[in-house]
Design goal:
The chain contains 9 helices and 9 strands. By secondary structure, the chain is of the alpha/beta class. Helix 3 links the parallel strand 4 and strand 5.
Length: 300
């Protein structure tokens, strides 16, 4: 008798910058979540779909859970917490190098209300000595009764296969939610905006990254069909940030555009003309209408 097809929803939760997006991209096999060494990179729930002949797992990469400083921060934390009650399994990801901190304690307190099984995923094991792992795992186990504990390196792929086997073992028979070739539920427009935002995160100084948003104003294929025109606005909170994004003689904006365009062309499989401009919207992260415009609203 053929094995029943399994499916389910799996949430990735953890403090900012523990490697959730890196792990998701590794599992799916291509980039759907942006990566940066700056915390709080992910703002929306990003769904990645992993499908084989026997299983479909819908991964939800939540924003890093942290103590909010503004309305955008509140939205991000609320989204992550709400996800815990909507999934079949939770992967609580921690940074082996950072160790158990107050942020992890904060999340584990919230996990106590979670009805789904919770795995502890200890990431970045390539950065610590193996002898340090067991004492660290014991510390976490004292705070929460995890169903499974799996050490991995999301960047190098170490032990990710074992993690996937354990996840599948916990899933129940279920339907196929997405077609075989679909790897995310986000439209191309969302991914393009995220690619542009990632390049800004990589290239700019600390004061800029979390004050930016990217709005895709228009995407259109030219009549001859060989080039796609994309017009996008980069939103900042202060004129000084606008200056940083544009750079001396427009060099920074040009570099952002050049890096983003190469990746967007690979995504779309077409030549792209990318037109970027920078707009100042004072305190947009605390303005409900602006948050809604950029898609950071909980009724979404």
């Amino acid at each position: 008798m053929a094995e029943a097809f399994k499916s389910g929803f799996v949430a990735l939760v953890g403090r900012p910058n523990v490697g959730k997006s890196t792990l998701l991209n590794h599992i799916i096999g291509q980039k759907i979540a942006i990566m940066s060494n700056k915390p709080q990179t992910t703002r929306n729930r990003i769904q990645g779909v992993y499908t084989t002949d026997n299983v479909q797992i819908v991964f939800i990469d939540t924003p890093g859970i942290h103590k909010p400083k503004h309305k955008l921060g509140e939205y991000m934390t609320n989204v992550a917490m709400a996800t815990l009650n909507e999934v079949d399994l939770v992967l609580f990801m921690v940074d082996a190098k950072e160790g158990l901190g107050r942020g992890d304690q904060f999340i584990m307190e919230h996990l106590k209300a979670c009805k789904s099984p919770v795995f502890l995923i200890v990431n970045k094991i390539d950065l610590v000595h193996p002898d340090e792992l067991l004492p660290l795992i014991d510390q976490y186990r004292q705070s929460y009764p995890f169903q499974e504990v799996i050490p991995v390196s999301a960047l190098q792929g170490n032990n990710v296969h074992t993690m996937m086997e354990q996840i599948i073992a916990y899933l129940k028979p279920g339907p196929k939610y997405y077609p075989d070739d679909q790897i995310t539920d986000h439209p191309e427009q969302f991914i393009i905006a995220e690619i542009i935002r990632e390049k800004i995160l990589h290239l700019t100084e600390e004061e800029v990254p979390h004050s930016i948003a990217v709005a895709i104003e228009n995407i259109a294929k030219r009549p001859e069909g060989h080039i796609i025109d994309i017009h996008a606005a980069i939103i900042v909170e202060r004129p000084s940030q606008k200056g940083i994004i544009i750079g001396k003689g427009g060099r920074m904006l040009k570099e952002i555009g050049s890096r983003a365009r190469r990746e967007i062309e690979a995504l779309l499989g077409s030549k792209v003309f990318l037109d970027l401009w920078v707009k100042v919207e004072k305190n947009w992260r605390d303005r409900a209408n602006m948050l809604h415009y950029f898609g950071y609203s909980e009724d979404r």
